[in-house]
## 1
Amino acid sequence: MSLPSAFDAGVVAALSALDAKSVKHVFFIACGGSLSIMHPAKFLLDQHAPLPSDIYNAAEFVARAPRSLDRNALVIFCSMTGTTKETTAAAEFARSKGATAIGLTVEPASPLAEAVDHVVGFEAPYTTGVPIDAKNSNYSRIYQIVMGLVALTGGEDLTETLIDSLVALQPAIDRAHATFAPMFEDYAPRFAKEDVVYTVASGASYGAAYSFAICVLMEMQWINSQAIHANEFFHGPFEVLDKNRAFILMKGLDSTRPLEQRADEFLHRFGSAENILVLDAEKLDLSGIDPQFRGNVVPLIFFDTLWRFAYKIADLRKHEMLEARRYMKKISY
Amino acid sequence: MSLPSAFDAGVVAALSALDAKSVKHVFFIACGGSLSIMHPAKFLLDQHAPLPSDIYNAAEFVARAPRSLDRNALVIFCSMTGTTKETTAAAEFARSKGATAIGLTVEPASPLAEAVDHVVGFEAPYTTGVPIDAKNSNYSRIYQIVMGLVALTGGEDLTETLIDSLVALQPAIDRAHATFAPMFEDYAPRFAKEDVVYTVASGASYGAAYSFAICVLMEMQWINSQAIHANEFFHGPFEVLDKNRAFILMKGLDSTRPLEQRADEFLHRFGSAENILVLDAEKLDLSGIDPQFRGNVVPLIFFDTLWRFAYKIADLRKHEMLEARRYMKKISY
């Protein structure tokens, strides 16, 4: 089989160099925001192939040294700047065990790029300030890797369908901004006053909830947070819910949507609607995105639109999104 | 090979009935507090065998329907009362796919016990109020399953060493209570006033941090919380740290201890020592526990001793540990 011509050249080069059928285990390794995209990637792989995989924080991965890490392992890393020390060290560790390492990064001359077998570039608006097309994002590139791997290891070849859907993603994001804008305008003044804001999601969307909690709310706004899995919510966390508590709930379109729907009903039963921001993918116009990938791309739409909500909160709090840091990249640690 | 005579009879029966070499994938499935013990179980398996495994919340597992779930999968469930609906449904789902299901529960006549192929009983003090011996806990039983599986699938046979260590665990817990008591006495009045308390850990201890955050702090005390992975801490969450913020840090003895050590140093550099409760396993007398399993059993010691800290906080807050619930088992949902 051959991969679609519209696939990213870096993805094609990495997968072509690989003896795909020898891959017995996939590891998805990164830190923080880059780790968050590994959750939807594993979700996609779990759906389409019986190929085992693990997601680990890069430092955990090295210290744990899982026995499945050997020459038949494929390890996929991501670091936007390519300078995350733990991730580079993990790439060196993986290669020392004979595994094949693919590194996703914006910077092709970075330490991570040097440490891996194959570099896959991507674009991120946060480095240049220039808007990107979502088909060039880390999500898009890792989805191409996963579905390419599925096809190359004997699974169904959905690569053409995937790439067509990824090309249709940016227009869908642009429409989503307009769809959610009035709700963000309404909720921002209340959320800007909160000291604790939880995010809730499951399935393909859990990573986006994790990233918004730790990288945006905690890191950029110093707001206390946690990403709560939509069903785990009912096994402890829901007891913190009252009429004043703020939640952001993602209702996606993947097979776990009923879990998020159940959380939605409970949140509205015992919380206040004005403190529960619900991003419901059923409200989005997803034209051009194949139904079988809608659930997979929705978290990127959620995350991208939520940046606008975050900036509104930041303005109201007078707390700079990209500059206000006590520690990150300001001191050595 | 034969399993040690000191192994639990239920574990021996389950493993003896299994064609261990046909097992290609292990799933660790539960909800909430029972899900938390799956993290150290997977850590132990990752350390000792190249056998792939996944941890999923029970409802996520069913909705996700991973392609690795087939007749060559072994699925290990846990529910203390055996009445957790999502877990029972997941056991039925797993068996419908041809997988072998082992269920850990205190109640041998419960719905979960009915739904699985093999029941493994355990003891929990929370059901009877009577203290148990830790060698009969869910941790102990799942570790016996994991190390039995490692031995039966061609890995090193450490089952005798494990069971000897588990027999030595309760005395170590009893000594740990005395070791940590003065620190708990000191910290409880301050922590009782906190609205947000984070837990931090990695490796084998992450599950204990998760359980204390969602089942004890959030569920039982309505205190906002999150279990932060000790290295993920540096990739976002650490920005919420200031001199007033409260953290509970677990410093275990497994291979990820340097990650927890690094978090410890940062917490003490920018936080206040009086708001950072550190459980350091190096302070414990672990006589009788083999060095190669010390890192694995330490989280149970942490969790067991932390109950005493939680009860102290509950007394000071006048917020009942076991009775004060708004929703759990008080309403239908």
Note: The CA atoms of residues 44 and 296 of chain A lie 7 Å apart.
## 2
Amino acid sequence: MSTTEIGRNLIHRINVGDSLTRSAWRRPEALALVDGDRRFTYREFNSWVNRVSHGLHRHGLRSGDALALASGNCAEFLVTYYACAKLGLVCVPINLGWGTSEISYVLDHSAATAVVVENEFLPRVHDALAATVSVVDIFLIDGEVTTGDPTLAAFAELASGSPDSEPEHVIADRAPLSYLYTSGTTSFPKGVVGNHAAIYLESMTMALEAQFREDDRFVAMMPMFHTAQLNTHCTAAILVGATIFIERRFDARRLLALIESERITQIFALPMMYSEMLEHSDVGSRDLSSLRRALYAMAPMPRHLIERCIEVFACDFYLLFGQTEMSPTTTLFRPEHQLTHTGAVGTPVIGVQAAIMGQDGGLLPTGDEGEIVYRSPHTMTEYLDNPEATAEAFDHGWFHSGDIGRFDDDGILWFTDRFKDVIKTGGENVSSLEVERAIYQADPRIAEATVVGLPHHRWSEAITAVVVPASGTMVDPATLIDKIKQLIDPYKTPKAIIVVDALPRTSTGKIQKNVVRERFAEHYERR
Amino acid sequence: MSTTEIGRNLIHRINVGDSLTRSAWRRPEALALVDGDRRFTYREFNSWVNRVSHGLHRHGLRSGDALALASGNCAEFLVTYYACAKLGLVCVPINLGWGTSEISYVLDHSAATAVVVENEFLPRVHDALAATVSVVDIFLIDGEVTTGDPTLAAFAELASGSPDSEPEHVIADRAPLSYLYTSGTTSFPKGVVGNHAAIYLESMTMALEAQFREDDRFVAMMPMFHTAQLNTHCTAAILVGATIFIERRFDARRLLALIESERITQIFALPMMYSEMLEHSDVGSRDLSSLRRALYAMAPMPRHLIERCIEVFACDFYLLFGQTEMSPTTTLFRPEHQLTHTGAVGTPVIGVQAAIMGQDGGLLPTGDEGEIVYRSPHTMTEYLDNPEATAEAFDHGWFHSGDIGRFDDDGILWFTDRFKDVIKTGGENVSSLEVERAIYQADPRIAEATVVGLPHHRWSEAITAVVVPASGTMVDPATLIDKIKQLIDPYKTPKAIIVVDALPRTSTGKIQKNVVRERFAEHYERR
């Protein structure tokens, strides 16, 4: 690589690491990260990233190599991510909800050659490593490196003794930055290849659309191993040079106190977290007036919840809708629509073109229901080593979301269901979400409900509700079915109601319908 | 090109044309362009662009071909630019201040195969074409096509009979979108190759930094053939889906009336235009309260002017600093600094890293003066067919601006002078701008002054001031020199003062020092 070629790359490239470099040059003394008692200015954060990047290079890691990252939310998580960006490495965040077999699969599939890990997760990673051969270095974020294991080193060692000069490596605009493995609803998770330009542009779009500002004070408490917290939130905050308060997990009391004490301006949480804060006894006594923006993700909020949120938090609410493959935000459900179009998922962001596609690959007119498809420079490169899944996802010149929805006359997108969660019963297609809404309406004592199609000799799939009663209450399936029948078409009414204590959820709180389906697969056969 | 390859490009690419497509899909009925009595929604604007794009394709234009555009500000200008973007053509805007020889040089150098032209400029283009061979099609925006010239066709014909479907061509992220020829201070102008990613990202940055919104109402009155009006202003407005009121030129009375009648929220003008509006008799009687942002470019405003602007226009003022090669904005002099750091050029925008470089290629510390250099994905691809100039501009892994400046302790950039305008006199380097400031201070009756170095047998270059007295006043060179001597070091004092009626300016109002230097080259020899 000639000096000229390196020089031109450094001048021109789109690189997520460069966005940190620029913030550090522009606002060196501004507060970047707060992690417990530790506070880092942009100068310190960038310098740390540069030193870790040089340290990883010293350990032999080279552009294109994959580095797995098994850690809860902490400063080191973001330092590792940006060090990868500046060195041209691919970061592979490990979902901390995974078991040994999933971790093992991902380490193997991504051909990770190094792992950065917190002590807490070291045993699981060690177990997973038994089945893989590629990993040669493990860097321990916390805890002491006391074993004689030559592959194990302290994360701190990467920075110590390294210069804090900017790493200068040739990295293409579309070079991979992350492999994010989607929580598998099929047998094996798929590795979503995220690239610098896609993630940089999505961050720009998000910062522009939700008006992120350099004087904003964000809380990062959703798992950083997920794209929403990592890319749409942290990378956009760092791009504009704002401050991030890192929390390991959501805690209603802590968060309410933090908003008051640190004059937090932006939070990002799940609907159930807002619900929990609203119910917390501290909510009335905390000063929440610093909040400008409240983002939420995963699902629309029911009307009573969003009304209460707007009243109590008194700031602008945005629902982020999208998926890992889109880096991830595709539509924003905006403050002005929260109460007029409650239940919708919003309008496309500036960087994304969204359309509804029919089964023949043609685009459908406004009002028609079909698969939501996208075009956007934010789109993933591909599924790693999976040309079949990639070709399927990119068929007909659009990215296929796997979501079903429609645009209304106001140009607002409504999400109907995941393709795979639509129930095919007696020749009809039924949206599981429509049935779920009817259940909540039929009996307010239902705390949680999920509706799936289960194998059935007559109906092909039988609509089945799995419900959790509110604590201290009971559910009579027959009575509930009668009530539901009065709200929706008879053929959409569940054939059976299964009462359970809890529903399986992903680490982001999403109900795992695939696990529900597997667990009760023989429900009708058994009968 | 396989269907799959086209499909993937359409999904992933960064393309300026796609930003219009997305705005038209998101806000079809929103007002996009107003040009006199003509009003176009985003649906209509996009449809027109698509039809023109298909029409150009029908005429044989293909990806990579260059199309010259000789037109004043009008809707057709933007339609042509976006039609080029969607077809993969390179748009070559013709500076309407150029003579036949410059137009001829640019048509030839860019190998333009088609020209879109307004009737007013057709004779000049025809004259210029005598010396070029590449142009095969001329499309006339206005006026009737009555000649028997087979190369001449009506611009309207491009759209008529074309479908309004989205053109689907493979266009790379870094494919060229424009050749912008810089007004030559050397013998031949250089063609700055702008690419889709650079221009798209600069537009995103501008929209983010100056908080462009979809409900903004912009006035485009600076020449669209310049990068500042075209890229940082129009492309960013179209990206967010705002409205652009197109004006052919600046007229203080018209603009003040337009701000009131159309509730304009954003204007972009030169300092002298703000000055003219402030002096206009209508300024007190017009309602200017709709203004949110006032952008200006070319030069900092003197303190009395910016103070008066803030008072009268009562909105946020931003100075855009940069150059065509950077697409163009590199720093923004922000509202909060206008009065505290009057005279500075601001802080780098989010997408740009700015530094000061010494003559040895090393970066200099804060406070030191040297060449302003940049790294940014907004940087041009290269100078067209000019590898020497490109290599020089990209030396040491930074883009060389040719500007001299320094950062102060607050991280704010101060522009000292253009490299080539620094005067080398008697072994010393003197900033021409410093001398100009002293002249204005020494005699308030000086309307305009420019300072250049002219060939001199003893001083190598002799500092020389060329001044225009305010109307009805006289200037005595000897007295003026004495007054200047009391303000600056003796060696910085002009050796001569030349009094003229007017100074030569570019179409953006910049004083052409190169023309001044040529005109008076023999001033000292003659003596």
Note: Residues 33 and 108 of chain B are 32 Å apart (CA to CA).
## 3
Amino acid sequence: MTVTNGYEQSDREQAIKIINLDELEDQARQIIPQGGFGYISEGSEDEWTKARNRAAFNTVQIAPRVLHSVEAPSTSTSVFGVSIKTPVIMAPTAAQGLAHTRGEAATAEGVAAAGTIMSQSTYGTTSIAETAEASKGAPWFFQLYMSNDWEFNEALLDEAKSHGAAAVVLTVDSMQGGYREPDIRNEFQFPLPMANLAAFSETSGKGKGIFEIYAAAKQKITGADVRRVAEYVGLPVIVKGIQDPCDAALALGSGASGIWVSNHGGRQLNGGPGSFDVLPSIARAVNGRVPVIFDSGVRRGSQVFKALASGADLVAIGRPAIYALALGGAQGVRTVFEYLTHEFRIVMQLAGTQTVDDVKRAKLLHY
Amino acid sequence: MTVTNGYEQSDREQAIKIINLDELEDQARQIIPQGGFGYISEGSEDEWTKARNRAAFNTVQIAPRVLHSVEAPSTSTSVFGVSIKTPVIMAPTAAQGLAHTRGEAATAEGVAAAGTIMSQSTYGTTSIAETAEASKGAPWFFQLYMSNDWEFNEALLDEAKSHGAAAVVLTVDSMQGGYREPDIRNEFQFPLPMANLAAFSETSGKGKGIFEIYAAAKQKITGADVRRVAEYVGLPVIVKGIQDPCDAALALGSGASGIWVSNHGGRQLNGGPGSFDVLPSIARAVNGRVPVIFDSGVRRGSQVFKALASGADLVAIGRPAIYALALGGAQGVRTVFEYLTHEFRIVMQLAGTQTVDDVKRAKLLHY
Amino acid sequence: MTVTNGYEQSDREQAIKIINLDELEDQARQIIPQGGFGYISEGSEDEWTKARNRAAFNTVQIAPRVLHSVEAPSTSTSVFGVSIKTPVIMAPTAAQGLAHTRGEAATAEGVAAAGTIMSQSTYGTTSIAETAEASKGAPWFFQLYMSNDWEFNEALLDEAKSHGAAAVVLTVDSMQGGYREPDIRNEFQFPLPMANLAAFSETSGKGKGIFEIYAAAKQKITGADVRRVAEYVGLPVIVKGIQDPCDAALALGSGASGIWVSNHGGRQLNGGPGSFDVLPSIARAVNGRVPVIFDSGVRRGSQVFKALASGADLVAIGRPAIYALALGGAQGVRTVFEYLTHEFRIVMQLAGTQTVDDVKRAKLLHY
Amino acid sequence: MTVTNGYEQSDREQAIKIINLDELEDQARQIIPQGGFGYISEGSEDEWTKARNRAAFNTVQIAPRVLHSVEAPSTSTSVFGVSIKTPVIMAPTAAQGLAHTRGEAATAEGVAAAGTIMSQSTYGTTSIAETAEASKGAPWFFQLYMSNDWEFNEALLDEAKSHGAAAVVLTVDSMQGGYREPDIRNEFQFPLPMANLAAFSETSGKGKGIFEIYAAAKQKITGADVRRVAEYVGLPVIVKGIQDPCDAALALGSGASGIWVSNHGGRQLNGGPGSFDVLPSIARAVNGRVPVIFDSGVRRGSQVFKALASGADLVAIGRPAIYALALGGAQGVRTVFEYLTHEFRIVMQLAGTQTVDDVKRAKLLHY
């Protein structure tokens, strides 16, 4: 246990046994302080949309195919020319120091060990440099929350590019925080510095405090912002937080190289659809032109399968990995990805699909 | 605590902290006497319709739009030429003395402070004059339960007009009380005088007792009654309690200047639809000719959004404000309106809507 | 308390207070012996259909109409030329001695006092003569379970006709008892004689024991049986237990003068539809040629309304009246009918319907 | 109680009383060791599909027909020229020694006594010879899990044929075990030898250990395997585990003589449809060319009826028989089949169906 600003961070580094990802939540609740756990686990308002994220998967069923000559299915796939062992990647989640003293660095290490992709958040508790270092050459994405201060955006994009980010994930669904009650109940304040903000504050010489920068987060985001980021950074830009086909089209028209379907795990707009509800219509709008990444509510191999069969190319998870981070550090994170991939591989076999491409063509039913 | 006829009225006047409007109910239950609380909170019969009021909102979802260039959305709107800070107004609810010793006067004061519209009930425990006074120039509506004694109606309408009511709300769904079990179980009798009835009894010289007037409430209400009230009072008349497009059309043909879609919070006809279920068809019948006001079951910013996006121009709340009245007097009431407007503003931002008019044009989904 | 063959029968005769009909079940459970209560309350198999009977009502909603000029609605109606105060009548239920020492006689007395129609079961614990006597001139129906012994049928029909039955209810859905677990768990045996069977045994001189007669109940029932009964008795024959439009048509073609839509309160075939589910299609098949009576699951005024608006002319209740019989004798039974009619009258007013015929024309919605 | 390798096997042989099949589960839980009970009762992943198996039956309703001249319905039917007393047969389930020391032999004896068909699993704890012997001339099927070692398959098929199997059931939905949490939680290992595997190991002279053979189970199964088995064994081959019409067509085209619709009781692919959901489309694909057998979730007579009315010719049960095996040995098993047939016969009568063929033509409703 490490205590920072009075906040007790886990410093575990150990193997964890996973029966299912859902159970990690209660286990993590035991060791993450209440304020941090509330922040990580919460949804917005009455959490209808957060719950719908899960329930939406049950609106479709996988047709089990049994005479399809499948053996030892392969979960390998690739994105932006990078090969990975599994279509399950890490979603960008902020402030991972709330779960573990090594924060994003440990996550990156575990993700790399599992052979898949890390996403580093603007609001990480470790810096881009540290996370990149921990990835040890494995592919990773940098996630950007745009600031009204373009210099800040440039600084982060420069940093990410110089450390070898494979793509930039531009989050566009968080022009304002959702109304999340646990944070209010807990009177939760971030106890830990955000490394990238602190770094900019120091190096820019502009004398800005972290709070000032945080408050400068951009509300007003348009296609022009997508284009500006893409043109500046010269890396693929994935627009994250898309829930409507028209926004997907707008993002593509503005130079997006990827569409990330997400409702932020039900943390932003409540009263909207489950993320899985909107995936098919967005995938049709994208029509294969760029990769589609999906998140929000994935906990089971069968859900990974359903998302891919509904048009996703990759599936991201967030909270389960953070819970495992608290429980076992990098080893915990690695186990989460390997475990979920294991469940997914069983589903592949039982559904009669040999490859990830087979999964994408699989038939789904509605009962 | 003030004791009137053996009934213990709250006399709190204090700031309240709201996490969500639902929690107010249990908090208020602690301080409002059982009979009064039963009367305020109850629905009719087995309360299917009261419960459906809430559930109906979940039959539609807000499409989250994210590249819409929205910043600091405005909740301002107007009705009958009156500008207000929020589309959330106060529904007329009877006998507010059950919740607070200052009754409607405190409510009016809180509503005015929040920059929106009060509705004063015929069966208020404070008089039209007192409520109007407490509004301090802010706009307010007078709600009329018609009596078979036209003189009584005239007296109330005269009083309301002379004190500056902006409109008259003519309630037409209460030709008889719904079958409400808590009142029967509690053997509940109104412990407090109804100021407007008492005043008429005294000033008319007709020697009628309050019970006599109350019993004279009109069951048989038609379009002709709407017309008669409208012609007499010379103010906009909003017909409240409409749940069917044909009744809306009939009201409009009879001179209504507004349609108030409501099932009385599930207190009247049970076994009918949720109020939100019928809003779209009524809004289509009204077709923008007059303002549509909506109530019954609204507790969340996302629900305000959904109601406006389904054809309402204003949304009214009742019970949550009464609970807050008990908990904090005028300050409590004010906080309820500001809180709900705060939730609504967050939803506006996250749904990509800058103005109330944008909300009205927003797309809803059905999953 | 009266003890007969070791079975403790209620002999209460007192006013009862009803908040709602559902609560009567638990109250009655306190005073009816376990075996008898099990028999009265049970459904068959896993009771899906019994539960569906209730849930089916929530699949339609009453459209509340508010400008319809309604005042003091009338619940009066008539059937076979007999005027009654309410469309709610008594369903035939067997062995009412299980609930009260006076059995069907007390029920008949209470039903008559409420101004509506009693139905006397073949398997009553009081005789046709006693029940007819207790009806004191009020209309009543005789319900026939056919025997393979036609002489037995003739004897019962003769008896019913001679005592003034207004119609014969021929039950056709009980060719065999449903699979009802409480009876098996309780090893329940009827502790009381069945008066009509005992009487036939004595008077026919055929020397048959009750068990022999009971075992002779007819499984194989066809249209020819309907015709034979109708031709023999010369009274209107209502065929009870219809759940399919084709069976309704067949009954009509065989001389039925009424169709009784019922699934026996979920006591017979489980896994079938709720009785209310099938009412509209059967009413369309009948098309107004004969009266349609509906039962199974009715507990609320709004449900009476929905049944009438879906094609029923009369609505019958069973279990709630039997519970009230145990709790208050004839007075209890009377109160049940008056109470339910009271709830129904409120719904009539709030739905904008002045007469039972208005109710039949009312619009229902599906949300 | 018999203890084998530390595992406590029931050795009961006694009459059991059945109120309903569901209750057997809790009763059996008391006497089967935790590991064995987990293995028998579990489904895969979050058990959505296992639960859906039950719920799917409630999506259709039996139309109760009442004037159909039915008396003492007959449950007799036949398959492959073999007459049986009931359309309910025994599904192949592995390792029945977990429930009872006599294992499959006791099951076969009970099934034969009930006049229906036993299915012997490849992975039985008693040998083909023993089970065949216990069947005493009654018809039985042999179920084959294919091995990559064709010699092993031949040995089993030879053995089954020589002992008089009426058909071979080729299971094709278990190319890999489903992800079942109780086994992992209990760290369950089969404590008992599998007789057929052990026998092959000894007699083949190939020196293979049981684990080696078990590990050689074939993942890659195609139509060619169906054809090879059918041509080799010269008995009807029923392909078990079909959940999709195209797989049914493929099996038929590959020489299948029967289609067994099953999702393995929800033990294999989770996130797929309920087995009953897919039955109608598969029956249409088969179109009467070969018998259709159905399992997964059947516990009630009404469910047997619904399955037959949806296109099944026979219905199989697994877990309830295994629970009864633990509770009462051969007598318990016999009672399960007789009990369920009893429930089914009541439903036949109440639905107006005289024969199993009538049931197949019965109308189902969807509410």
Note: Residues 2-366 of chain D form a domain with the TIM Barrel fold (CATH 3.20.20.70).
